[in-house]
Design goal:
Blueprint (H helix, E strand, L loop, with lengths): L1 E14 L2 E6 L2 E7 L6 H13 L3 E2 L5 E3 L7 E6 L21 H19 L4 E2 L7 E15 L5
Length: about 150
């Protein structure tokens, strides 16, 4: 399981010109689910996200978590995070989980993350063509992969 986490001042998802979800200060998370992912990946990654200290304290140091700042989270599914570009110029998505496997894991990820932060998490629509807008704060953008825990 792989995420691109962006610290944002605001973010939103629109589908077919209809606003689906929006948040204020917090994280926009692009979530890629791999065929090899399990509940263990979800638990580890959600715990890491909730406790990650990338918000500034009163001294300007990145020392606060999304919990500390009472931030919001918006999760958008993005299978292209598992693109392989080793051969040729057309990416291969062979490692990305198929929808029948990915959708339940996506839903479990959202549920687990809501439990970790104690509030509702905004979402896009799995598999839809989405317009994702954000105001990146910093910018701060971090990638986390549950298969690389070092």
């Amino acid at each position: 399981m792989r995420v691109v986490l962006q610290r944002v001042k605001s973010a939103s998802v629109t589908v077919s010109e209809e606003l689906v979800s929006e948040i204020g200060r917090g994280y926009l998370i692009l979530l890629g689910i791999e065929a090899a992912d399990t509940q263990e990946d979800i638990a580890w990654l959600c715990g890491k996200i909730a406790k990650l200290r990338v918000f500034e304290d009163d001294k300007g140091a990145m020392n606060k978590s999304v919990l500390d700042v009472e931030g919001e989270i918006l999760v958008v599914s993005q299978f292209t995070l598992h693109a392989s570009t080793k051969k040729g110029n057309r990416p291969s998505f062979i490692k990305a989980a198929r929808p029948e496997q990915a959708i339940p894991l996506y839903q479990q990820f959202i549920t687990q993350l809501e439990q970790e932060i104690g509030k509702k998490v905004g979402t896009g629509i799995f598999g839809a063509m989405m317009d994702v807008a954000l105001v990146n704060d910093g910018p701060v953008t971090i990638t986390i992969d549950s298969k690389v825990k070092e």
